[in-house]
Structures are given as C-alpha cells and as structure tokens.
Amino acid sequence: MRSIAVLGAGSWGTALAVHLARTGHQVRLWDVDGANLARMEEERENRKFLAGISLPDGIKVQPQLERALDSVDAGLFVVPSHAIRAAGEAVAATGHTCLWVCATKGLEIGTLKRPTEMLSQVLADPDTVLLVGASHAEEVSRGIPTSVVAAARDEARARQVQAVCSTTRFRVYTNTDVAGCEYGAALKNVIAIAAGMCDGLGYGDNTKGALLTRGLDEITRLGVAMGGRRETFYGLTGMGDLITTAMSRHSRNRLVGERLGRGETLASIIGSMVMVAEGVNTASAARALGQRRGIELPLTEQVHEILVEGKSARDAFETLMSRDLKSEEWKGGAGVVTPEG
Ligand SMILES: NC(=O)c1ccc[n+]([C@@H]2O[C@H](COP(=O)([O-])OP(=O)(O)OC[C@H]3O[C@@H](n4cnc5c(N)ncnc54)[C@H](O)[C@@H]3O)[C@@H](O)[C@H]2O)c1
To answer: How far apart are CA 132 and CA 105, in angstroms?
Structure first.
C-alpha cells in the first residue's frame, strides 16, 4: 500500500483517486475549489464532476495542500493544462518532494510547452512521469477495463507507476518516449472536436473514418517534428486515445465539436459546460507549433478557424475537401519529418 496525493478533484482526478483507493492505496484528494471539496466530504461523492460514484473510505478529502502532500510516496497532478503551472508552483512552494506524476493532457498557450515540461521546470524534477492513454473518467470509475501508459525517460520510474496503478481492470504499459506520448494525448483532442463536427453536421462513417485517419497523420507529423517517435503515435496515447475520444459519448471535446456542427457558438457552448475541453486551447497551441516548425496541419487549421474566427463547420469541411489533390503514399524513413499534409 502506498500513500498518494491526487492534486485536482475534477472528473479525472476523482476517478483516479477512486481507482487508487479501490486498489488499496491511501489517497489524499486536494483541489483549489474548497467549496466542492467540502461538499464531497459531506456527501462522499463528487456530484459536480463525477456523479453517482461513491468515494471509498481510502480517500481522504484534504483542502490543505501541505497536509495533502505530507509524507506521500507520490503526487499525481490532474488539473487542466491551463492550471498546471500554477498547481506546480503551489506544490513547489511547500518544499515537499516525492515521485511526481502528471495526468494532464494539453499544451500551454503562449509557451506551447507540454505539461511535464512545465512541471519539470517548476518542480526542478527532470523526469516527471506522464500517465495518459485511452481513458474516460466515467468508465474508469465504474471499473470498465482500461489501458493507459506511464511514460518517463527513466524506464524504472515508469515501472514504479505501472506497479502502483495496475489492476486487472486498469492495465498500465510503460514507454520512454515521453514527448511522443504527450503530443499524442494532447493533439487528439483537436481531432476529436473535428470528429464531433462531423456528427453535428449529420455526416457519416465515411467522413469520420477519413477524418480519424488524416487526423492521426497530422498528429504524427507534428509529433515527430517535435521529437516524438513515429511508432508511439500508433499506440495507446496516439491512435488508442484518438479512437476513445473521437467515438465517445463521454468526450467533452467531441461534444463541443458536435454542438458547433449543429450551429451553436463556442461562447454559448463553453458557457454551459462545467468541465474543461482541452482541445479548444490545444488547437491554437498546435497551430502555432505547426507554423513555427513549417508543418502543414489542415484539420487543426480549420478547427482553429471555426473556434477563433467563427467559420462555419460546413464551410471548413468544404475547404478540406477542396484542397489540392495529393498522394497518400508515405515516402519517409523512421525519424523523417513529413511537413506536407
Ligand atoms: N475527464 C477525463 O475522462 C480525462 C481522462 C484523461 C485525462 N484527462 C485530463 O485530465 C485533466 C483534468 O481533466 P478533468 O476532466 O478532471 O477536468 P475537470 O474540468 O473535470 O476538473 C478540473 C479540476 O481542476 C481543478 N483546478 C483548476 N485549477 C486548479 C489548480 N490551480 N490547482 C488545483 N486544482 C485546480 C478544478 O477546481 C476542477 O476540480 C485534463 O488535462 C484532461 O484532459 C481527463
């Protein structure tokens, strides 16, 4: 049994805390939202983010960060990407050290940094373990078989997280390609928004199949240009997470796209959601990375135009289908960057 602090009590933080407590670990669950923590303690349930799931006795809701981190073996960051730097700085200020793990998916607007890069900076820990994959909070909290990846440059660290988190319902693989896993997990949310648009517009399986395939190509081309290994994008944090998110009734990113496809505005959609949809910010960050590296990202570009410039989803699909005709044949070798999409 280990003692673990889960930092962030939204849907995913709560689901992971429930999973770890059921696995036999002692969990302290902390968040900046003290009011919701108080409700959780009273009701032993997180009705705001994960209704219907009782908190096991092994979870102690802890509103004080210092106490949440006191003598823990591991600290698991599960906050949205826009809050990861602030959460990391708050943790660094306590002076506690332990095995740091990051379950956040996204890219920081402005710096375009990955969550583990930000944490490595603020925590002075060069190898924070990434824990991401094909997983929805709603399913993990109900014990539905799920597989994810623990990634660290030092494989021994990834194996530690694998050993602590794995059960017969939650299978953890390891990987040393942290950048590849992290770009895959972040960029798939942009493609999931496009997949949702396809649903909202009433398009069919042909469109969705093409979109996921060309989307994976786009994720891979940018991810390889950013230092990821090509084969990583065909694993759980790339293709696996893309399928899970883009086909899902649980995914907020897919739902944002579906509502945009039906003609709602982004402002009204975001205004009606309590949970974060990471793909919205990631679309702008990914587009900026693509421009910086000279990588063509046709789908990301259209998602960005819809989200930021108010282009209609129907016009965006017209633009995509009217692009210059291309060959799909891949002409590269293993580490070769292919800019053209
Ligand atoms: N929901 C899922 O199924 C799922 C699965 C895998 C990964 N993720 C990733 O996990 C991350 C968190 O997602 P979520 O679904 O739990 O989000 P959510 O919107 O459900 O909850 C976010 C939580 O973070 C808290 N928070 C915000 N700023 C904070 C700060 N500075 N310090 C501490 N807590 C803070 C909020 O109060 C809230 O409780 C995202 O990057 C998401 O992509 C989510």
So the answer is: 8
User: Which atom from ligand 1 is nearest to the alpha carbon of 50?
Assistant: 20
Residue whose CB lies within 8 A of the most ligand 1 atoms, among 36, 82, 276, for a mutation test: 276
Residues 203-228: pLDDT tens digits? 999 999 999 999 999 999 999 999 99
Asked whether residue 96 falls in the same domain as residue 166, the answer is yes
pTM for the whole structure: 0.97
Same domain (yes/no): 13, 140: yes
Phi, psi dihedrals of residue 334, rounded to the nearest 5°: -50, -60
The 10s digit of each residue's pLDDT in 305-339 is 999 999 999 999 999 999 999 999 877 776 778 88
Residue 334 maps to a domain = no
Q: Is residue 335 part of a domain?
A: no
Q: Does the residue 340 lie in any domain?
A: no
Binding-site residues, ligand 1, Cβ < 6 A: 7-13, 31-33, 49, 78-81, 83, 86-87, 103-106, 135-137, 275-276, 278
- Is 250 among the domain residues? yes
DSSP calls for 64-105? -HHHHHTT-SEEEE-S-GGGHHHHHHHHHHHT--SEEEE---
Vertex 182 angle, CA 119 and 239, to 5°? 160
Among 188, 208, 311, 326, the active-site one is 188
Let me know whether 76 and 218 are in one domain: no
